[in-house]
């Protein structure tokens, strides 16, 4: 079956070492790729995910040493949620307390226990306890596989109006309506991991301001180039501007701004993160695309040291 839903979420952060420490040590995600921002090679692009870096498990960051904080607002991803086994909510609540991570009281959202917290840059994150979380998990030094994050659960977008964005999700990106709760309207893809996009319509709210802790874009899955091209054509037919395909080394991407103002990407499932280093070694070396390899020494000289 064709897998639809989120491929990855990409955000801005402050200093790289702090970002790496929080997401790999506190949250127990695997660093699956250490590379640079292809559009700005003097900065890192860090990819976190599960053991194999499967689509739907990926959260990535552009760390900027002295980034001003962003402000959450309309036209942006408000919250990025991870899946954990339902029985692990208590374990994670204790862990956040133990690590000094402030969190909100546990709430039920669409019938699922949801623990909201922020990363060191103020990025709004949540852990959601789900049934059938699956057994595939990355066991880090501090987070055993039993409780480990199973990938993205979904994102919540803050919008002036929900309908125009909803139409793109259902008519182009392969998601379907999956329920309403208060001012939340939920859509689901066919993939269990990273399958959910929830729209929160809040007319009259301030627009988002990008900065540390804010999401730059969210990426949806396309099985291959042909599926991606068909989606691109459907967007153009709706009068949206879509970029040319860009080679991101681990997937190929097109980008467009959806009607609600959020930057969307459509990324291919192939070739994946094992294209330039074996699965066992993912994230261990700084990887550069062929075009930047001749500049490795200069690039390494300006990047801050991380593990
Ligand atoms: Zn992306």
TrEMBL record:
Residues 5-130, 151-269 form the VOC domain. Signal peptide: none annotated. InterPro entries: Extradiol_RC_dioxygenase, Glyas_Bleomycin-R_OHBP_Dase, Glyas_Fos-R_dOase_dom, VOC_core. Pfam families: Glyoxalase. This is Glyoxalase family protein. It comes from Methylobacterium phyllostachyos.
